[in-house]
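Quick note —
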Amino acid sequence: MPCKTKKDAFLSNQDNKQQFTNLLSGKFKASNYTVIHAPDDADLIIVQTAVSISEERHVVVIGEDTDLLVLLCYHALLHNKNVYFKSEPKQSVQKIRIWDTKKTKKHLGEAICWLLPFIHAFSGCNTSRVFGLGKGAILKKVKSSAYLQDQARLFLKKSSKAQVVKAGEEF
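Predicted structure written out below.
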């Protein structure tokens, strides 16, 4: 039966969303596709799956979310096949971008890629950010400053609360 309601309204109902997900999953499975259900945010599972597949063949990840690109640069392995990230253009922007995560990782360097989750979070991944500083500006500052890299590393390794607070203030 055709659905005569708008997609957003239909999917805002959790029962509708789950039934649609189950229907779609069943269709994919019937066509011999692998289906993985994420209990929460799917970004990490998408990236881990892509990196795993890249051990044997090239992979393209399509999405709107910068989180995927950040996680791909963090997790991708240089000795694997290429993992590409293709951004889906938003309605207001018609430019499609394709990122080769190997080239991006080589360009940024593994040390900076290891810091990307912190840089992304600090520059406002999905929430607030430092006023007047965008992602590009913060990335450039971190790339050019060993001191800022040291402060960022404290967030990504086992550190005391006092160390994290001090590093946050310094950063």
